[in-house]
């Protein structure tokens, strides 16, 4: 159970500031389904609006990275942060954007490898090589 | 300073099991430079060998994801794990594989966005939508 | 399910060192309810006693911060550590100490903001400004 | 050293989209000093602008929590995320907003206590009490 | 529910590369039971094989640390990483290797203590004493 | 630089509540050296006293685990929490308690292995096997 109320569609429809964001979520995604994250954020309409607009700007516009790559990066961060909900929702999003089993398997392998070497490096307290500090 | 000895080239050359891995690192990367991570792992030759061979298998073969995408996923995990060395070394690796400023900027934006929503989701303890549990 | 036994009231009553702490928890909180955390710690009576006495000293005395502020700080740490139980129990405690919906919403917004900028700062490896190092 | 360029004032002045944000930072804070975080974000003007505007909306408006409480929550999250820069910058911000030594000491005590019980709870995998799931 | 398919025994038996690893898991552990982790990794046979072989080399050979100590270290890392599954599986493994209640209680106390001082140290940004930097 | 004052010996000597703890640290460890962590905690004498007494109770008494094992568990937690100071100080403590190079190498290998499988398990969201839930 959540620590906040998850808004039903009826509650959303009665709150114009929330409804405006939900309408845009549905229109942008071309789907009636609005997942629980947004139903929790609905308790704070300005936070809901800012978060949705940032997410659109970061994840849903044409950019230098393709949308699937962005979803895989999102999964990587969410895994290291142990955010179960986020892993589920962004794995679903990545699959919706075309991630196949082979790509998913490689994503997992890279995440696991990074997890291992992050821990080894930190336990050894390896100093940064000067070669990595050029440029910046 | 590291919590382990960082092996010099002279020390490596005197230890055949370590030298064999360093030779392969240099040959594979077509560069004489071997960064400190491997000089720390040299204290445990079987761990050095296993880690290098896993890294080659995960990061340096043709696969379903292109090498730059894998490096960006590595940076994402390393950031959430707060591994300073890893962020430096894999940002250098990503740049060596062609990451331009626009791609780096988008990578950072996605990492920041994920950091934010990971925290919001966790603080609200949002339950996973059933729609995300189909398939698996 | 827990990895340790959760002590029932009957078990607690039969163990004087545990019962003494549970009696103090009940008296201090003016409530018969003792939550599962303490029922797990009961397996190690000295740890139970030390933890409860520290918690009282940190969270339940008059001090420089009001009790609600302390609970919100607790939620913030628990979120970044991804401790689901702790988020639930301290959100309940914060509500019991008067946290209203507007305060909860702001707490969430700050936690999310910090999550975002923590990740951005770490990914960019921003050096600490000298201005922040004055004093200490 | 950062993984991105930290913009000098001269570079900022030559880029109108960046300069507009820096001008607002200086005007809002009534100070000429702009810390390195923003000089790193300057590489991505839309991200710079979104992050600054979110930070203003979350941290610098009148709200349900006083500004010092918000800074202490920020420190709590940054500590659990091991973000050294963020701890330094927000401790400075908290002091600028009036945090005294006694308040800082209590903040540290709460953060430490939460760190301890977060780990104990997680290692014991304590199930959430039903009492904490009422409401939401 | 997992984000990947968990392979049944029938599916394993039909895939020789997977079956070879499962056969070795069963033979090494002298048990028919193969836990879900391996059934998830089965989707990527080379990753399955590498992970199992590393795990055997690290956890199941005679070495400088006894097997129970290694399992307790595993639990410690898994707790700080908030990996619920890993805590459950390695607590079971530690018990199977003889961990008694007193040892488990001490393990928890050390994990909790480390959690507390890690947070205190980080919030205070304590500089490393020169005495700790000798040697390496 | 720390975010708090690090107390000099002269300052400690002038504050009886702090001096009493420092005297006990020196007597217990049979060494004049008091590391920076305690010099930072000195700003809050009750926290200093509670932390030292807990540390003694957890790390420095005869118990079910030998002192070196406890130090290695401490390093494991500190690594996963990315606490650089803690890794340095507890690696020094482990070496003082007799940890040799082979034991240190195995500790690192286990920490790295756990880091890898923690990330793999979390990314795959593996459900806990029923076999691991028996007992508790």
UniProtKB/TrEMBL annotation, chains A, B, C, D, E, F:
InterPro entries: AhpD-like, AhpD_core, CMD-like. Residues 46-126 form the Carboxymuconolactone decarboxylase-like domain. This is Carboxymuconolactone decarboxylase family protein. It comes from Mesorhizobium marinum.
């Amino acid at each position: 159970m959540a620590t906040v109320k998850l808004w039903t569609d009826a509650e959303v429809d009665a709150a114009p500031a929330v409804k405006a964001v939900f309408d845009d979520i549905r229109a942008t995604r071309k789907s009636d389904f609005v997942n629980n994250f947004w139903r929790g954020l609905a308790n704070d309409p300005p936070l809901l609006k800012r978060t949705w607009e940032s997410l659109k700007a970061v994840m849903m516009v044409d950019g230098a990275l393709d949308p699937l790559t962005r979803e895989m990066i999102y999964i990587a961060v969410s895994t290291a942060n142990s955010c179960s909900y986020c892993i589920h929702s962004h794995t679903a999003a990545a699959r919706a954007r075309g991630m196949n089993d082979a790509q998913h398997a490689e994503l997992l392998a890279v995440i696991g490898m990074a997890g291992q070497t992050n821990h080894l490096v930190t336990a050894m307290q390896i100093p940064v090589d000067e070669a990595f500090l050029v440029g910046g």
